[in-house]
Design brief:
The termini are far apart. About 15% of the residues lie in helices and about 40% in strands. The chain has about 150 residues and is α+β, with helices and mostly antiparallel strands. The protein has a six-stranded mixed β-sheet with strand order 2-3-9-8-5-6, with no helix packed on it. The chain has a three-stranded antiparallel β-sheet with strand order 1-4-7, with no helix packed on it. It contains one helix and nine strands.
């Protein structure tokens, strides 16, 4: 008697049903685990970038004092390299006390009035802190924080 590996309908013959079911369950489980791994890496706060479209940047995180309201952009980046939405950004110091969340593009926008620089001072420091709480579905309970500072010179 000759054994065939596949019937006309494509069903494997000669393999126990429990082995076929096990292979299917292992494939589905592996797919789920890989998907969770990729999803969890995309939701890790890696860094924050600061920018302004008005050109007040003097170099690095050093800004010259501005006289008109300034559009200040803070973008939160995930460890996967993409922008990270839902991050709480706090801008404080130099007369500022602002909070905002990053939008779906990972950017929080602030319209900052002219800074308050103390008398007899050449500038002030404006701390920028980003705090991200990963979704509970990933099993993460601790929030992630990234801090940087901006120096504003008179």
């Amino acid at each position: 008697m000759r054994r065939r590996l596949a019937s006309r309908r494509g069903v494997l013959e000669g393999l126990p049903l429990s082995l076929i079911i096990s292979i299917i369950i292992i494939a589905i489980g592996t797919t789920i685990l890989l998907g969770l791994f990729v999803y969890s890496r995309a939701h890790t706060l890696s860094s924050v970038s600061l920018s302004t479209p008005s050109g007040a940047l003097a170099g690095g995180n050093v800004y010259g004092a501005w006289k008109q309201p300034l559009l200040f952009l803070v973008t939160a980046w995930a460890s996967s390299g993409g922008a990270l939405p839902g991050v709480l950004v706090a801008v404080e110091g130099c007369g500022f006390d602002e909070l905002n969340h990053t939008a779906s593009n990972g950017t929080a926008m602030f319209v900052l009035p002219p800074p308050t620089i103390p008398q007899h001072s050449s500038g002030c420091v404006m701390p920028v802190q980003a705090t991200y709480q990963p979704p509970a579905s990933l099993g993460a309970t601790a929030s992630q924080t990234y801090s940087t500072s901006v120096v504003i010179v008179a």
